[in-house]
Amino acid sequence: MILKYSVDKLLYQRQSSDCFWANLQPDENALTQMNEIKMLVRKTIRNAFRTFQEKAEEKGLSALTEEYGISLESLAATGNVDDAINALKKVKPKFCSQGSSVYKTLNKPAHTPPQQMDVDDGTYLPMTIIEETGPIIAKEAFFKIVDSALQQLCQENRDWKFINNKPTCARIIVSTDMHIDVPLYAIPEGEYATLTEVYDSSSYSLEALATKEQEVILDPDQVYLAMRNEEHWKQSDPREISEWFKSEVKLHGEGLRRVCRYLKAWRDHTWEDGGGPSSISLMACAVNTYNDPQNSSGFAGDSEALLAVVTALPTQLNEGVYLMTKNEMLYPRESDQKNHSEIVSQAEKLKTNIRRSLLSAESQEECVSGFMAIFGSRFPYDTESVESIANQVRGTSAMAQPSPETEMKPNFSAG
């Protein structure tokens, strides 16, 4: 499909601060602050377990459980209570970044408030994992210890707010435009020994720290997520997604990562109060389009890639989106069902606007206006950077035709 216009220069230029990609970049000061807060939260959780265990040695665990609201009888998720008690006395958490800082798809919020940048930082807890039944210590004990520590941290930082109604994590709202989520994972003691954790954050940016911590691969079947709204631990390894996405970017190039960020920017502009497809589901849709055999020759630029991705998006969302590595349903999930028709409708609008802007707009001005209607003011209004591709193609074709004067004549001479 031949584009009429290309907005490649408006979408992304490596050295330019006046392109859409640059306008999505979080402020460096904000990234530094997020990194500092992450390390403070890690220190707080590490100290909380150390304090818990020191008090247990001093007072005895039975006396201490009242302080935390943990009953000894409820400590064991599976197997022996004494084994669970002894294991809890030895737990030393390690940590590992996850989410958009690992995928390198973190965008600046489109509307603040209420939208916020988020840091996802997993807390990994070593313990015995019993085959078929899972971790031996009940997840409630860990939620009690971590929640108590983070609540105290928020009291010491009065502008912070602790949230514990998320099923998969504890959350600290740091400011109107930033929060940190802390999910809890159980892993076998052997896996724990290999988990990389970088203590000295001073030499690492938020992105570099996340990359460094992904160097060790855990057995995904031996990683369990603590869920507040479920009885038992749930088998779930966030590194599976990061490894999957990393391999797809390696295959298709950085353009795939940028297109995923454009989709997230569309969602955040469209649903000011939150909502819309999850980031992971949008990433999966983009990957599926890149992997479609009809796109096997690749894309000439971000305009062409974005056009292909948004053209496929409504159908993908309507039919359901799966993480192919696990055949896990990403969209629609239960929370999406109520707004499913609206989400698909908005995806259709995205498709229509992008196609009109790139394929049939009457002018560069109309092309840019179409993109701004989708992405908002973060998309730059710069009509001079819009390239007229169809005219270039027609011009090239015309130049390729030989003129009558230079056309070769047949040679009828004898001999």
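Above is the first protein from milestone M3; the second protein from the same milestone is given next.
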Amino acid sequence: VTQGSIDRFDRLLIHARYWQGPMSVAVYVKSFAEITEIFDYVKENPLALNQTNFHMFFEKMIVPDHDEHYPHNYLRNCALNYTDTEYVVLVDMDFITSKNAYYRMRKLLRYEQDVKDALKNKTMLVLPAFEYTKEGYKTFRKKKGSKWVPTTKKVMLHHINETEVMEPFHIHRFAGGHNVTNFTKWFANDTGPMYLTPNHHKHFEPYVLARREGLPWYWAGFRGFGDNKVSWFRDANVMEYHYGVLRDFFVFHSGKKSRMGFVDSILEVQRPAFVKFLEVKEQFYHNVLKKRAEEERQPAPVSTQ
């Protein structure tokens, strides 16, 4: 389940090649010409995109072509709403899964009952996220090209430990976003097919495999970068979702390397939207927590036998 604009369609083909399963893609369209361009693109790549459902979002008032206006959460809702599978993988267009992830996940769900039970019991399973190091982006990516993505965990670990051209996503820029993943444990490779992460950080925003039923919706009041995905996990936490990590899966950021310090400026821009989000959600959180407290205070039923 993903979303993007037409300028990200080069990544979409990489998704199709690596994922090799059904995809629900919400596309942000800014002109009728882009609609025609999308149809032409699908016609040119029929085999690669034959399992892809497109959902086009065309705004009545076209906003300027700047990232701060992009309606991430509305598009995420659109892509999620039009899925009909029991399980979903929620990613952004720039994050590519490891090779054959779809078939390997189906096998995992078929043979690993612990994984299936975890998903049924409100546990989201994290796909650890990685990217190029600053130097790796300058050299290795230039050598390999923007369409190259590590295929397996073995390849990923090689480029983290040996060539040192890859690292956990935003580990130096915004560690709170993904550190709960416990990368050290993932690197060690000595767990079962999944391991639990009992802690949660207020900025945690991983990419996950989840059971679709009961998932919250993304709050569409955010536009642009910052807080949009974090707010969804905030809702999930109130709904008592838990987190685990998939040992043999990952996603890799194939987009541009973000600059240092970008997070602070983004959070400042999004502060008014986040304040509004908290105002809207305050009563919802209050009601959920109140109901939970009342249930916990209820005395245990007394046996009459």
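Note on the second protein: The radius of gyration is 20 Å.
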